[in-house]
Please model this.
Amino acid sequence: MQQNRRSFLISSFILSSFALVPKSLKSFELQHSSFQLSKYQTKVVSKIQNHLFPKGENNPSASEIDAVGFLQKVLLDDDYDKDIRVNIYEWTGEIIAESKSKFKKDILDLSENETERLLVNIKNTWGESFISILLLFIIEALFSDPIYGHNKGNTKGGGWNWISHQAGYPNSNELNKYGAL
Amino acid sequence: MSTNPDYDVIVIGSGAGGGPVAYELANAGRDVLVLEKGAWFKEKDFAKDEIRSCRRSVFTPNLRDERHVIEELKNGEWDAESTLDSGWDFWNGSMVGGSSNLMSGFFHRLKPDDFNLLSKYGKINYGNIVDWPITYDDLEPYYEKVERIVGVSGKYKKHKFSEPRSTSDYPYPPTTEHHISSLIDDACQKLEISNFPVPRAILTKPEGDRGACYLSGYCGSYGCNSKAKGSSRVALLDKAVETGKCQIRPNSYVFNIKTNSKGKIEYVEYLDKSTNIKRKVSAKIYVIAAQSVETSRLLLNSKSVSHPNGLSNKNGQVGKNLIFSSGGSANCELPFEMYPQDIQEKMKIQGPFINRAVQEYYEYEDSQNSNNMKGGTIEFLMRHPNPIARSNYLKWDDDGLMWGKKLQEKMYNHFTKNKHLRFEVFVDWTPNDHCFVSLGGNEKDKWGLPVAKVRIGQHGHDKSVGKFMNQKGVEIFEALGGKNIQSHLGVNPPSNLQAGGCRFGDDPENSVLDKDCRSHEIENLFVTDGSFMPTGGSVPFTWTIYANSFRVADLIKNQL
Model:
């Protein structure tokens, strides 16, 4: 009954046919022995995430739930689909390059309006899968069991509280939670 | 191997097909060994954690290590793709107790006519429908046994197509129901169609070490923390182990079945995944119950000089006539603002069950056909509360991907202003020549064994029946005031509802098993998962798999 993952991956796969796919997984692996985001990449991803999921009247922002920290844990999870993790790296590089090409600016210096235009542009060209995956991991962080430390905001469980979600019982504990998170 | 077998019976796989055999034989004083590929999780290992239970491969194999190849029809050609590439996960619960740990527990019996579909409704062109070699009456005592031993709760209500029963009602009272159940009752009354309370494999009062349901609202895809859900593990295997006659070996991956010169199975070979050591073990009788796709795969992979096409496959029938459940589904919104304040509060409650189904159209008249048509079941349920899965779906609209305030507003309204109701339709999947299991050629698992390749051709007849049934479900949604109704026909097979592949029958030319679910070719081999089913009925299969496994257990008991 893992249809959520399936439907995500299937839609991602279909959309990926229009996207820039890593040219060679092997050559990529030679360049990236670790899946650790650099400090600069972390700032870039964090900026995009916060644009995709900003602070609202009652909802926490991507920054408040440390969505980039959650994504970093996914990238380091060897049990998670490697192609997706590789793609996130590749696409991060692509969007950095796209900013320089379109706006002649470092992506971190783009205004909110420029960031929106950049995202709309990549959505309509090569980047819909990239944005989709970033949104997925923001949503996973926001509504994950609070034990993972990302479902927060003003209070613990801030994501659930925002949508009046009634959690099941029992929640995870340190002994039975998902290890890589 | 020694001439004295190590056990009386070895059961390969521990879900709904394997559990009853282990339970019955151990209670009869026979030495039973259960070999299960997955781990042995207990209640302490389960939590209502969407990430761990639904979004990562914890209770199913990692596709990197173990996968399938799925063949779909694309542009008139069969296109094969590994699930590692597509992400289409065909695993359903690899652990002691199998996927019965993760089921929702909607329990329906087949109807008497489901056992003779060919005789009753006639041949469907390009379909391979056959009658069953047994009747409903043969299985009825075992359906009843499942009610008592696995535990089925409900309230019997006679309707147009209700099946005969040997007892007046279920042994456990129904689960607590949600206010929406009464709305469905009212809508059906308005439309002048009958509905009925759905029996559930969920205990509503404690029984031994099993507690009653505590109404968490998280059944499907999650392990149960009170043992109320009637999984093979808690209802049968735990009890079998208590007899001292049943041993369960988790993490034991059976990869080969070895026969002797007399054509009987001599031993099975398995990999102890915890030590990476290959072992052999023998028994008088072997029972395979690894779920349809993997059962066929094991037989096909067990090739030898005397069985070059795999075991029990002289006539090339292993893997053939695989079936799923056809149908479709629909969701609708019930905006809280439609109801007075006191009802709004009732609508917001989470936990109680809906437990309503409609079988008014299990058979129906069709103007295009002289014969009556076989229809199916419309099952109503609350949309699963999983907020990650639902939100990830919400990010899409007709214009593609959305984000920012627009997405946030959509999410907020979705979760806080509506109750979400769903129905799922179950209709027969017509067995046909384009739905079968074979071996995946060059695609191997982590240990170098060919994976199962599954061709998933669906008969056009089933799609038209599914469309009819979906429309009837939508009419009920409309009658109860449902808004934003979104209906989907079943394009892909539900991987958790698989049966067939080793169907039983009297003719060895077109079946793998005899009516006792014993191999036509191998005297000491039985198959007791859903593989035996030539047709699946228009309901979920689990109750029938449990019942048939109890039936076969009695036959094995008499033989030993």
